[in-house]
Amino acid sequence: MESAQRGASAASTRRNGATVVRGARERLREAATRLFAAHGYSNVSIDQICAEAEVSKGAFYYHFDSKDAALYGIYQPLLELQMQRLTDILARPDPLPDKLRAVAEDVARICLERIDDLTVFMQSMHLLEPETRALVGEQRRRYHRLFAQMIENAQAERILRSDVPADLLVNQLFGPLHYSTIWYRSRGPWKPEVLARQMTDMWLDGVRAHPPVARTEGKT
Fold this sequence. Notes:
Arc Repressor Mutant, subunit A; disordered C terminus; two-stranded antiparallel ribbon
């Protein structure tokens, strides 16, 4: 899907007649993010991305096979970072409740810190080519399965409520995070780490195992 990245040791290199300047990939990714956010994925051309990034069209095709690959390139680093952080936390010898908090707070913070990338991708994901969309879906399901397995372990130990399926508890965390692309702005008053902690607190308060609350019939 994407071409191999050039080595970081050279200031520039030649490939297929194109001079590729170090840093071009990141500039292209940032330019695509800005343009997709401002005009919509369908209304942006590769030429516009190159002009915004101040790189040649040859440099674009060195890093990305297509505009579809550029859109995937916005989200791929976020997916990879989330998966790496999840596996790192799961490998720790920490108590399960600590891992639950760490995973939830970490993924919330990452999403908020990368809110511009997440927003563009959530708005444009349905426009990906079917093959690329299937790849993203599989990557997200892999993360979901690992998270759900941790929740199932916590349910078995009566740390989390067991009257709700683990998959639904995972979605209960990611639903507000995905909705944050509507209202959260990176230049707004909330710091990502503070908001991530607060969102994690609210999620844990809702999914922890609690004694059943007695209900009184006929009263509101």
